[in-house]
């Protein structure tokens, strides 16, 4: 029975010692430790949060950059396109103008040529007419002298004409 | 080769340490009983077993002086102060005033009062000695009739208690000093202690008491855990500073369980008392029946805590001592290897149990406190 | 005689405890086999339950020891 009869001395000493221990350690050891552990946990939490935030910001920044870049690129593209269009237009305009000019020149030249041709034909007509008249005059003169000689003459003239 | 020899050496050292409680006294008695020239010690093993039983019981029990070893019939022990609260106030003297007497034969006189020690209990001495020279009066059933002063001596267990407390203080302040300068991850000793603290805070207190109140119980639970753990481990140490069966003493476990009971009762919610004395949702006769059962239930919880730790540690000591005692019961060195190996095995289990019991005591304390603090928000289910 | 009966009592207590711890161990093994990833938690729970049962068994053994030492 002795074994399970609590002794008063040890009981009271345990109570006193343990309560003192809880009080002292609770105040001067466990509390500071737990506080600094908590502090550290909070710091880690905060650091993680800050890192997450920074990452988010970085992401945002990158996104913005991307956007800006995209905008710039599209603007450049637009400008380039415009320039190209303008060039095209200028070119086509110039071509058009050149074409018109050319055509005008051509038609003028053609007209002139036509005129020249007409003039030449007229000249030729006139010359043929005067030549025919001359030939006829000469033939008639020879015919009138000798018929044989007429013939000879005529053929010689014709030959001449032919050589000409 | 070096590595292979080391465990062997350790084992031998370890077994010597284990056998220390039995040292010379028991060895002599067994040697004597082997001595066949002495006619009346050849009796039988009955007495031998009785001796070992007494020895074990003596070892488990508290003592007024710290016995280290016996050397050639001379007991070497450290005297501890005896503090008595007598009819005439406090009386103190050193325990060696009794000259190792434990049968009430040596009387210590202090002022007008006379004291004797009989089976580690201190009594007021009788006027005259009986036939055995003992100054105690025994009734017919062997019970002692002398009055006892209130004994608050620094016994072996109280000494061990102080040592435990000192070690816990050392552990606590050693690890706390790390946090004064270092706000980053713990270093050295603190890095070993911190996970335990965090475990007790998160897995024991927070899980069982609840988010709202757990923080105020954390210091108590942590101290409880370390106190029991260190006490258990010191009890396992076979030589001088340890070796006292502190956590296997029911007074020790009782005071710790009492503190848990006090915390349970003083922090109980109104809801808990309502559920204890007037369980809602059951018929009135049932309520009357349930009230005393629930009331007893409050006390059985810490009672079970008290018995569990006490029984575990005491049984562990008894098993270890009995296994060693086998050598002396069989009176054969041949038993020694088996006995030592078995003891080693039990010892390792005990080291684990020391930790486990500290954990369980802490866990259940938190659980019981949490139970009484809980408020039921689902009354309609009852 | 008192000693023998006390020993029988202790033996009976140990019998019950053995059955109990055996059941816990068996169930824990089954649980671990089913869910190897939860083995840590199962082991902890197993140890705690085993400690409870062991405590009950020790009550019996202590009672037996007390019976053996009636003084």
Automatic annotation (TrEMBL), chain A:
The keyword Cell membrane applies. The keyword Membrane applies. GO terms for cellular component: endomembrane system; plasma membrane; proton-transporting ATP synthase complex. It is found in: Cell membrane; Endomembrane system. It is a single-pass membrane protein. One of its GO terms (molecular function) is proton-transporting ATP synthase activity, rotational mechanism. Pfam families: ATP-synt_B. Residues 37-141 form a coiled coil. The chain crosses the membrane at residues 6-30. It comes from the Bacteria. Keywords: ATP synthesis, Cell membrane, CF(0), Coiled coil, Hydrogen ion transport, Ion transport, Membrane, Transmembrane, Transmembrane helix, Transport. Signal peptide: none annotated. Belongs to the ATPase B chain family. HAMAP family: ATP_synth_b_bprime (MF_01398). F-type ATPases have 2 components, F(1) - the catalytic core - and F(0) - the membrane proton channel. F(1) has five subunits: alpha(3), beta(3), gamma(1), delta(1), epsilon(1). F(0) has four main subunits: a(1), b(2) and c(10-14). The alpha and beta chains form an alternating ring which encloses part of the gamma chain. F(1) is attached to F(0) by a central stalk formed by the gamma and epsilon chains, while a peripheral stalk is formed by the delta and b chains. F-type ATPases have 2 components, F(1) - the catalytic core - and F(0) - the membrane proton channel. F(1) has five subunits: alpha(3), beta(3), gamma(1), delta(1), epsilon(1). F(0) has three main subunits: a(1), b(2) and c(10-14). The alpha and beta chains form an alternating ring which encloses part of the gamma chain. F(1) is attached to F(0) by a central stalk formed by the gamma and epsilon chains, while a peripheral stalk is formed by the delta and b chains. This is ATP synthase subunit b. The gene is atpF.
TrEMBL record, chain B:
One of its GO terms (molecular function) is proton-transporting ATP synthase activity, rotational mechanism. The keyword Transmembrane helix applies. It holds the Pfam family ATP-synt_A. InterPro entries: ATP_synth_F0_asu, ATP_synth_F0_asu_bact/mt, F0_ATP_A_sf. It is a multi-pass membrane protein. It comes from the Bacteria. It is found in: Cell membrane; Membrane. Its main location: membrane. GO terms for cellular component: plasma membrane; proton-transporting ATP synthase complex. The chain crosses the membrane at residues 158-177, 217-240, 246-267, 317-349, 356-374. Keywords: ATP synthesis, Cell membrane, CF(0), Hydrogen ion transport, Ion transport, Membrane, Signal, Transmembrane, Transmembrane helix, Transport. Gene3D superfamilies: ATP synthase, F0 complex, subunit A. CDD domains: ATP-synt_Fo_a_6 (cd00310). Residues 1-31 form the signal peptide. Belongs to the ATPase A chain family. Key component of the proton channel; it plays a direct role in the translocation of protons across the membrane. This is ATP synthase subunit a. It comes from Schleiferia thermophila.
TrEMBL record, chain C:
GO terms for cellular component: plasma membrane; proton-transporting ATP synthase complex; proton-transporting two-sector ATPase complex, proton-transporting domain. SUPFAM superfamilies: F1F0 ATP synthase subunit C. HAMAP family: ATP_synth_c_bact (MF_01396). Keywords: ATP synthesis, Cell membrane, CF(0), Hydrogen ion transport, Ion transport, Lipid-binding, Membrane, Transmembrane, Transmembrane helix, Transport. One of its GO terms (molecular function) is lipid binding. This is ATP synthase subunit c. The chain crosses the membrane at residues 6-24, 45-66.
